[in-house]
Specification:
Largest sheet: 7 strands, mixed
CATH architecture of the largest domain: 3-Layer(aba) Sandwich
Order of helices and strands: HEHEEHHEEHEHEHEEEEEEEE
CATH class of the largest domain: Alpha Beta
Radius of gyration: 25 Å
Shape: elongated
Helix content: 25-40%
Length: 344
Amino acid sequence: MGFSLSRGKFAAAFTAGLAAVAAAGITSTAGGQARGSCSPLDLAFVVDNTGSMGPAIDNVRRGLGNIVDEANTVSGGNVRYSVVTFPEDNVVVNQPFTASESEARSAINGITLGGGGNIPESSDEAMNTVVNGLRASDRAGGQQTGDFQPPYRSSAEKIAILITDALPGGFNDEYTPAAKANVRKVADEAKSKGIRVTSIYVGGRPTPESELEGIMRAWARRTGGEYRTTPSDGSGASAAIRASISRCGGKATRRRMRVRPNPRNIRAGSTRCITFSVRSSSGRPVSRARVRFAGRSKRTNSRGRARFCVRFSRAGCRGVRATRSGFRAARSRVCVAAAPRFTG
């Protein structure tokens, strides 16, 4: 991709965010994994280094030590890093996995800018290299520089962070059905190997481009990773990156809760009041959970309860759903029996 205001601003925000992580002196994760619980960790950065990325690359060089600190926290110090870039319709392995912080720094410092005259970009093939540990000899001449060897460790928590605002185009500089299919194929291969992809769509809010949004969501959804967006100026990218590492690339899942109706069985033809109790997996009440039932919605009180008075004319089971930030959605049902028939 060529020079553009949004990409430049994103890049600056991205790397400035890395610096902010370090400046904060982070020693614990942001609501995700406890220290050492994402260990061992293999962390791959798949970054666009077109010409417009110059200011961002400089910030990355200054902030690299900060992201290393965060990775060290969640991995307990057992972490490897790799850097792969896609400056044109090709892939460059700047640094295969290494446990050396100095080598990781050298990889960032050695990134050169170039290419990006057209869109789309070869993000899908860069991910293919990372996921499948490809060597340059596995490609046609000129498509890849360097070998992504060694690959991810089989025993490691595996994260790939892909940051882009462009559609994938393989090595053809064209977004085609084949390129879209390649994303699905590589993402499914990543899932089979336990590699979680954090996809960050810059410019994805407030109004995302639907095709690119679908691609970025697919990377995360198909691999069990995370999908995040930033405005076109790149603000919020630093928070997205930090959250990805602190959550072990999506491994830190939301807590479970359950919703239970009382009574669970009622009869049609008369008004009945049903109290829904929402509790966490540990049995504690969940307040402010939103309970949806019979076309209505209510919040639970401090005791984790919401009361609905309803009247159904027909028999059958009706679903109830409870949601709350930080929790997985909970579901249950209320079954309605037919009203008794009176005969003379």
